[in-house]
What we know:
The complex is a heterodimer. Chain A has helices spanning 2-7, 21-33, 46-51, 71-84, 98-102, 105-113, 159-165, 179-191, 205-208, 215-225, 250-255, 267-287, 292-295, and strands at residues 39-42, 63-65, 91-96, 119-124, 170-174, 196-201, 230-234, 238-243. Chain A is of the alpha/beta class. Chain A has one domain: Rossmann fold (3-Layer(aba) Sandwich). In chain A, α2 (21-33) crosses α8 and α4 (71-84) packs parallel to α6. By secondary structure, chain B is α/β, with parallel strands linked by helices. Chain B is globular and about 65 Å long. The chains are: A alpha/beta, B alpha/beta.
Amino acid sequence: MNAHVADGLLRAGNANCAGCGMTLGLRWFGEALAGTTPLLAIPPCCATVTSGLFPTTAYHAPGIATTFASSAAVGSGMSRVLRQNNEDQPVVCWTGDGGTYDIGMATLSAAAERNEDVIYVCYDNEIYGNTGGQRSSATPMGAKTTTSARGKVERKKDIMAIMAAHRVPYAASLSLAHHDDFVRKVKLALGLGGFRFLLMLSPCPAGWKCQPDESVALVRMAVGCGIYPVFEVFDGVRYRVNVRPDGTPLEDYLARQKRFKSEGLDVDFLQADVSARWTQLRALEEASPAEDEECATLDDVQTPAVAVSCEVRS
Amino acid sequence: MGTVLATGNQAAGQVLAMAGEANRSARGCGGGAYPITPQTEIAEYLTGHQFAKGSFVTAESEHSAMAVCIGASVMGARSFTASSSNGLLYMTENVFAAGYCRLPLVMVVCNRTIGPPWNIWVDQGDSLAMRDSAWLQFYCESHQDLVDTILLSFRVAEDERVLLPAMVAQDGFLISHTAMRVDIPEQGEVDRYLPALRLPQRLRPDHPVLYGSITLPRETENHRRDLEAAMAQVPIVLAEAIDEFESVFGRRPHGAFSAEQTADADAVLVASSTMSRTARRVVERRRARGEKIGLVGAKLFRPFLRPELVGAIGSAKRVAVLDRNLSPGSGGIFWNEVAVSLRQRADVVLQGYLMGLGGGDVTDGHVEAALDDLLGLAESGEPVFFPARVA
């Protein structure tokens, strides 16, 4: 563990909250970098706070603090200049869901459409965490936030489908409960060129009203019940589900978070939504599966043994 | 390249590209561009140009176009773009970010009226709305002035004593879309004039820092003091840049303010952009009739060099300021600056004239009438629309 801190992306001494999923993600991402130094573009979000007061930084890499909607565009400019100087460091946009699903959506879409040579990571805590917990279009239906006090009425935006529709070389969802698959996919992304999108469900105990020591368990439950599908998409068309739901009841996942103790929560509707998404995902994977060799390249980290059942409780 | 017939946009695109090429032995150039009338031809030129080392991103908005420039610049490239009007306003957040990050970008602004209501013609309100963004601002009176000022602005912006971005404004359509004879330099001359960009804060893999991250009030105040200190260096650096310009290109652009026939003038017109040229004709006509009238052409708006302005106005007792812009509730924006500059000159009758707003004509007749109005005033007044009624 200490080796990650010494060699990775996140150094000791940051002030992130206990149980912050993004923090664990930074460490695992740093592990996958394996000594490569990325250049970061970070919009104002918890990841800026992570850095600490200028000129000190908790990141073991250089970067620029961009304006909120701009990380993918700033990253585009950085990447172009690196490449025209024959420098191969990866440019990593490290952003939250507000900067991705909402205010940065046009910027993200345009950089993806141009296939800029950038790795775009969205740590999705399903909330505007840095401003104290407002709803974003990543907030799941039924979740209470400071701007959806009775539970969010609308469904969560399907960002993976949106990115797949851009036919980017690689889009993948990462699980903070599945270390090997996480690291494998980051390494795979690092080895590809063009626009790569990585989504990471990132528990926020302050916003989710959950216990800090349960963050990893919550992600495991989110993956197990199917509300957070863990899969990868190549060129927007070839699919591979990496971890299949294991029958964990959706209610169990919801019950561990006080944000879902809301009058607006409709578990049946949410379950139906999860099931429909899985029906769609299975069909996509069956119609156009990713090749084995493109899923497990680069090193000896193997795709985790695919589990149990494709079926989701319904 | 020599003397060619070119529109303002053609000339600006070529000279921006030459400035980019001049950095080919270093980190190259790059940036983002987005179309908006009347600037579009510059974006087309930059995205179509084959750079030896550099490329332009066709961004999805002005906001992102400037973000790309920021990313390119912080990696050490020479970066530049162009915009106008509402596009510039849409870009605003990143305009400030570039200024506050001390990135020496150059942006050509084709001044255009802000809407709605929509109007594509010239008005300085767009770039003047950016006056607090820590960018230098130049207002050009002619095609040649535009070419020369673009080159000057790179030199001043990139000087390590300044390190601030620069906006170079040309009148939309009046310059951008009219063709005039203009001297375009050779690439070799531009190479000599613009040395390789050395950006001290360039991101380097071996130096972890999150540039632009969080500061507390004390450091923030120091940052603002640094901005002000950098602005204070501009007169020195600009003067050197003009001297060097003359030695490389063989002609001498004027600096912050031109002082034309002001030494013995009783009354002075202060004008910017193409209005300066109209005012110049009026001054020459009045001088021919024996009237002691002078002109101050205001080119540099940020920093606003108040002592230099006072010096340029000289001992004249009457000053008229022509503003093709309006800060609603406050009058003309140049007038505001001139009024502050002359705050210790209680003997001066100062009058601001708002004219040509939204691209309306500013004719010799309008300027003559404003001058006559000034000469008849007993005391300074609030800014007035002029002529009083629009036909």
